[in-house]
Amino acid sequence: MKRAAAVAAVPVLAVLLGAGVAQAQPVATGSLSFSGDEGDYISGGAAYAYSTESKDRLTVNGSEDHNHIGVSVDGANGDWWYLDLAAPRGEGLTARAYDGATRYPFQEAAAPGLSLDGNGRGCNTLTGTFAVQNVVFGPHGYVQALDATYEQHCEGGTAAARGEVHIVNPPAPPELSIGLKVATDGTASTLNGNAHLHGTVACTAPAQVTVSGAATQVKRNIIIRGTYSVQVACKPGAPVPWTAVVVPAGTTPFQKGKAEVVTQATALDPVYNTNVSVDDTSVVTLTKS
């Protein structure tokens, strides 16, 4: 589906508003329908109805700050439509009526946003209202439920398109959680001066975890420092060990004694496509090896 073609005679603009938008998610159970007055450009005076029960494909995405929900329809008959509902900027969508809506995402900050377009038709400007009867968000804009009605007038006209949308999804999957442990014992090589560190990572879902950080040691007023980064294929169920070699940045080698180790473990949440990280600062005792 190509949304850019949906709005006739309107320049294609890339607009970034507020917090990021989560990935579109398939709708488990839902419907979108609308009909219009004679003279309404979007509906052409006809009625349209789509549902997952009728094998139409619906997807939904919400913004991180819960300000906006977008619903798209890929009809089994080849139709395609988009519906956008947004609270005034800085507010989250809640169960209430929203009056004075203008075209999303070009509405002024204090106004709600609305847009129904598709099948090659869209409004250059619009006015409208919508009412949210129920909305339930999960993490990162996951949309668990939405029930809303809407009315849209193109180009200041009196003819309107009116419709409703209903979405029911399973409860939001849990976010990825990772754990990090840095062992308090390590070694300093007398051969090359490198420090060797180890520890474990844990995760609640399979993830590629990057363990990185820096080790710092002070000997005879000389600062010895080096950085490290390793990849760990983490699987839930048991902590996964990691080891790292820290090469000193200067000519002075790591030595027997205590070192401060600052570590961060980072992984991409496979469900929400967001980075998750955890930090640790430990004092590690290095012994000669």
Q: How would you describe this structure in keywords?
A:
single chain, 289 residues, eight-stranded mixed β-sheet, 0% helix, 54% strand, disordered N terminus
In short:
Helices cover 0% and strands 54% of the residues.
Summarize the structure in words:
This protein has 289 residues and is mainly β. It has two domains: 166 residues, no CATH class; 111 residues, Immunoglobulin-like, CATH 2.60.40. It is built from no helices and 19 strands. The strands form two sheets. It has an eleven-stranded mixed beta sheet, with no helix packed on it. Strands 12, 13, 14, 15, 16, 17, 18 and 19 form an eight-stranded mixed beta sheet that branches. The N and C termini lie far apart (62 Å). The relative contact order is 0.14. The N terminus is likely disordered.
Strand elements, count: 19
Order of helices and strands: EEEEEEEEEEEEEEEEEEE
Mean pLDDT: 92
- Rg of Cα set: 27 Å
Count of all domains: 2
Terminal CA distance reads: 62 Å
Sheet/helix structural class: mainly beta
Strand % is over 45%
Provide a count of the helices. 0
Helix proportion = under 10%
Question: What's the arrangement of strands in the largest beta sheet?
Answer: 1-4-5-6-8-7-9-10-11-2-3
Low-confidence regions: 1-21
Main beta-sheet annotation: 11 strands, mixed
Shape: elongated
